[in-house]
Amino acid sequence: MYKLKTKENDSSVIEFIEEVESPKKREDAYKLLDIFTETTGYKAKMWGPSIIGFGAYHYKYDSGHEGDAPLVGFSPRKAKISLYFATGDTERQQLLNSFGKHTSGKACVYINKVADIEVDILKALVNQSVKFLRETYPNQNNH
Asked: Is residue 12 part of a domain?
């Protein structure tokens, strides 16, 4: 997600979801689209070829590396569904404790299906991630 090649673009989110092979994963992608849109208030945008992102922020690391990324997002990948939240947010783990069946990496949380997770906790993770990024990178329009 934090590679510069993952840029916001004008590809159709709906067309992308329609190309998801598994009907169940496609259905989950639409559920997540609704949840993320409702929770963030942002319109879904494609980031790179496979990430559906909401909002945006500009980051700059101490190393000098900088770029743009969605505030939150998801990607219905073949093996699992990837959920993208802020890295470095200390409150994320506490929410994940009651999230349901998942695995997690540095920036991603992986789920098999929406039925495995608590949707209210997902909404809390989305809100917490957006709040954390707005506090970490203030003075941005976060389109």
From this structure: yes
Q: Residue 83: which H helix or E strand, with range?
A: strand 81-84
Which CATH number goes with the domain that contains 115? Answer: 3.90.1150.200
Q: Could you please report the per-residue DSSP string of the chain?
A: --STT--EE---HHHHHHT-S-HHHHHHHHHHHHHHHHHH-PPEEEETTTEEEES-EEEE-TTS-EEEE-SEEEEE-SSSEEEE--TT-TTHHHHHTTTBS-EE-SSEEEES-GGGB-HHHHHHHHHHHHHHHHHHS-S----
How many domains does the chain fold into?
Answer: 1
Query: What's the predicted TM-score (pTM) here?
Result: 0.91
Query: By the 8 A CB rule, do 81 and 73 touch?
Result: no
pLDDT of residue 18: 97
Is 95 contained in some domain? yes
Averages of pLDDT over each 10 residues, the chain, 143 residues: 68 96 97 98 96 92 86 95 91 94 91 98 96 87 58
pLDDT for 142: 55
